[in-house]
Amino acid sequence: MGRLTRDALKHVEARRTVGFFGALIDTQTLEINGKPSPFVITKDAEAPEMRKHLAALKDLQMLFEALAVDTRLVDLSEISDAETEQLGMLYRAIARGEEITNPAWEVSRVLQTLGRWKLMLLISPGSAHERWRIIDPFSAEVRQQFRWSSSEDGEENRIPITAYDIVEAEHLPTVLNLRLDSMVGAYEALADFPSTLGLANQRVLALLTAADECIERQAEYLDGAERLNEWVISEDMAPHHPINRWQIAARRAGLSAEQRTAVRDFRREVVRNGSENRVELEMACEILLGDAESVDDLHRQLPDARYTEFQKWPIWQLHKRLNKSSASFAHNRVRP
Q1: Residue ranges per structural domain of the chain
Q2: What pTM value is reported for the model?
Q3: Are residues 251 and 214 in contact, defined by beta-carbon separation less than 8 angstroms?
Q4: What is the predicted pLDDT for the residue at 274?
């Protein structure tokens, strides 16, 4: 039997294969069509190493299950030896609930690297001096209370926020333990505060950007954005929320005929009402309808600062995609 390597156990789910061979070594019996057949292994020097790998993989899987991590994304060959050691400590702290002794730690947020991914965790005081608990901030069972204030606002003006609001946009595409199916509940818990709906809307936009940046997890982010946006719509029918609903659909499979009609109706209503951000809403509608020329005409009505700001919105990525597709079509078209 060949030597096991990290490449051979590329994914955490490979433990099933290792487990099969471990059982084979123990029983030296292989069942075929429901009938046991002897399977004599003459050389089992690798068995202790295999069992060691299997135990490590089981620990990793228990850790990732406790953090609701999709193990299909985790490539063990990308994880350094130092990260492997840190994961062992996290297994003891999170999967087994042990407190960690460390005189150098303090209350803080931690971004644990995992190859190209990350885990976001909190270090919290334990039962004694220099003993610490490591907490998953996204777990509904131990949901944390956070408050935020700018340096000018002071302590008395701090606003309550969710764990999702402390994830910077640059890290959102790479954090694996987000538990996006629990996100609506986190915002619902703060629904009585006037700042919550604005924060939730900003998180919808951040999830759309993450979906554009991380194709591997696009469905996960779009599902999370849709759930949160529908909750926001149920609480507040501001004009930009339907735009978000449609751009989620556009990213999935394009708009249906019914949805395109709704966008046109919405655009006419925006023009009729003459709202302050009418031009931006019109541009968003034209992007959703695939009319790049109208978008270019409309943006000339915006001051430079507002146009620059509009280009930071996730819907601008749909416009860039539309322009790229149109340019490709024009280049490849067969001319008579």
Answers
A1: 1-76, 252-336
A2: 0.82
A3: no
A4: 77
